[in-house]
Description:
Blueprint: E1 22-25, E2 32-34, E3 49-58, E4 68-74, E5 79-84, E6 89-94, E7 103-108, E8 116-123, E9 133-137, E10 140-141, E11 145-147, E12 165-168, E13 185-194, E14 204-206, E15 213-215, E16 227-229, E17 250-252, E18 259-260, E19 271-273, E20 285-287, E21 292-294, E22 300-305, E23 313-322, E24 333-336, H1 341-347, E25 358-361, E26 368-369, E27 372-373, E28 388-394, E29 399-404, E30 407-408, E31 410-411, E32 414-415, E33 438-444, E34 451-455, H2 462-465, H3 492-496
Antiparallel strand pairs: 1-13, 1-18, 2-12, 2-17, 3-8, 3-13, 4-5, 4-12, 5-6, 6-7, 7-11, 8-9, 9-10, 13-16, 14-15, 19-22, 20-21, 21-34, 22-33, 23-28, 23-34, 24-25, 24-33, 25-26, 26-27, 28-29, 29-30, 31-32
Amino acid sequence: MAFLTEAANRGSIATGYDIDNSLKLEEANTECINTPSSYSLITTSNVYKGTTSFWIKRTSLNNGSGVQWLFNGANSARYDGIYWDVNDKLKGYFSALGNGADFVTTQVFRDTSAWYHIVMAIDTSHSTASERIKFYVNGEQITAWDTSPSIDQNTQLTSLGTDAYHGWGTSYSYNLGASSDGSSEYLANCIHVDGQQLTSTDFGEFDDDSGIWKPKEYTGTYGNKGYLLEFKSSSALGTDTSGNGNDFTNNRNITSADQATDTPTNNFCTLFPQPTALGYGQEPSIKEGGTTMFGGGYSTQNAFGTIGVRSGKWYFESTITNSGGISTINHGFGVMDPEEITYVTVAGGRDIGSFPAGWSCSSNSSPRNNDAVASGANGTSALNENEIMGVALDMDNGKIWWHRQGTWTSLNNTVGNPVNGTEPAFSNLLTATDNFVVPGGGIYVYSGSEIRVMNFGGYAQAVFTAVGTYTDANGYGSFAYQPPSGYYALCSKNLARFG
């Protein structure tokens, strides 16, 4: 797992062109977005050329369990598509080439901390076979393939056909799909250009200073049946903003809550599960845009954030939506040196506050570090399910505070104040480790139904937005409670300010 840090803001970078919104799709909910069944994609005489460009941030991997579809074009009998296979390789399937004749990359794509930019550029009328279907990832044309089938000149592909319908997030988009194969991801700037074979540089560019591939505004034409999905309107997430009016109106299980602000130009922290150890799998499971952890086979299960910090002031939130029938004080969250994640797993069933460079707090306001309660901490009664806690992390001074429903923890009956730096739960974050720290959360598995939900601001679930929709000191994120003055969401635009 690669962490985003202040010095390595990989997968997202500040740019003069901003992408404000994305669409959160969840495989478990079979969420997808489709053109209507009356939509005839191509009405021009050229049915051999087209380009599809999109940005994607994965929130869960396949782990050999099944394919995850990203994009497809289908009619009543056939379909084309792009998906992650069971080995997390990118695959391109085209019905016209026959079963098993798939494009399969040699490269795997397993980074859930970064955004990928994918372009599929088609011109089957080209005289050179290798130029007829081209794929690009983050500005580079893919040339290393496990399999790369040949395409006859002037082959008609289903996704460019006169009766094709396009879909995102599931296979068989025709009539909303006969397949349950879906994908867990954020999608942004989904573009289809009708009648042109373009390249990745029409949609992105390398940053001169960092060398990071970043989005740029597409300024070309879209063709008669091209479209641009920016997901700007939460009430109409399938709106085509290219000017063509080719709206996606068949949206399965998509609601306004699936709009997110985690984008290629402002990448937010999300969760990944603790690594495999002691014969156990990747546990706990991660869902809902990388913000929810659940399940696991034994004792305490932990998940960790994809952004680490060593300086700056940061804020995030969490709640237990299902305690599994035991007190919420059995479930802690906070921050940890990522080098100790392996020890958490190997030790088996331990809270992150049990370790020298781990700090956590449960709902009774008894913060823990190195298996010891903060000196002078005033314990309280446990919170109920769906009641919210927050973290204020001051890595300029090595301090941390937690709040319960907006009231900061107290030491010796004095309430802490993250703004002026008084009465932190702990002040040893810069001395206990010389490394950066990442967010972490745990659930104590008792019944198997336990669920912890995190809010880093990029995708706030209803349990948070029902309380409030506050932004950070730079106006980013959506939080249930107002972050302390001078504190920031864990996102790339904020990190750039502290690099």
